[in-house]
Write a structure and sequence with these properties.
single chain; alpha/beta; Glutaredoxin; 2 domains; five-stranded mixed β-sheet; 47% helix; 13% strand; globular
């Protein structure tokens, strides 16, 4: 492997190995980076990444050729040289590095919290926007959505009015929604709540203790807890259409 890539891959491999819990056991597929099993989500992610790697390696090769063509005195590109087989090695190096980096990030932020699924939801108590303290366990017997958000998160701002619609529709049949804001200053959160006009309770996790309990690394994160207090679904990020998945899951949990 090309030497600069080799050292980077070593670091990334160690990090991915340390985050080996990202794997979804039972898939029977060995990860080429960490050696552990990886789930369907990672396999799909890898396919997209491989395409990106191919395009990036082609772009690097083209840039090197263009660089050599523009100089008066032809120079040998330090990455490609005059040997075509070096391009193949570089392409493989790029794929390994980018795949390792992406899986490392994916492991730390995307799939780590999915390990909560099927476990009892960690209990917590936080001050709410109404001034009172709210505890998760007080909602036992209800289907609870916990949405972690921040004022600097664009997708959070886009998602919150849609979550408020779900709350208004299903609150009377046993559905609760707790928005957990992680800003350092709750005043910014209060301003955004008033601006968006949402009605669901908002709690303030200024010390980030609850977000650590739920292994939150990026915003937003949406957790669905069943009537027995167990985590059933964990969603990371938001894109238009996610609310349809929430609706399906909420209805299913309410029927149980």
């Amino acid at each position: 492997m090309f030497r600069p890539f080799q050292s980077i891959v070593t670091i990334i491999t160690a990090q991915v190995g340390a985050n080996g819990h990202y794997a979804q056991q039972g898939s029977g597929v060995d990860c080429p980076v960490s050696g552990g099993a990886k789930g369907p989500a990672v396999l799909q992610f890898q396919g997209v990444l491989q395409m990106c790697c191919q395009r990036l390696s082609d772009a690097l090769f083209t840039a090197c050729v263009f660089c050599n063509a523009r100089v008066r005195k032809p120079l040998v590109c330090p990455y490609v040289g005059r040997q075509p087989e070096k391009r193949i090695r570089i392409m493989k190096g790029l794929k390994t590095v980018l795949l390792g980096a992406a899986l490392s990030i994916f492991a730390a932020t995307g799939l780590a919290s999915s390990s909560l699924e099927g476990r009892a939801a960690p209990d917590f108590v936080l001050k709410s926007s109404s001034g009172e303290n709210l505890r998760l366990s007080e909602h036992r017997g209800e289907v609870v959505m916990i949405n972690f958000w921040a004022t600097w998160c664009g997708p959070c701002r886009q998602e919150m009015p849609l979550l408020d619609d779900l709350y208004n529709r299903y609150e009377r049949v046993g559905f609760s929604l707790l928005g957990v804001n992680i800003d350092d200053d709750s005043r910014r959160a209060m301003q955004m709540i008033e601006e968006l006009g949402v009605n669901f309770p908002v709690l303030f996790d200024e010390r980030k203790e609850v977000s650590k309990l739920y292994e939150v690394e990026a915003m937003p994160v949406t957790v669905l807890v069943d009537r027995e207090g167990n985590v059933r679904h964990v969603h990371h990020g938001y894109k238009p259409g996610y609310e349809e998945n929430y609706l399906t899951e909420i209805r299913s949990l309410l029927r149980e």
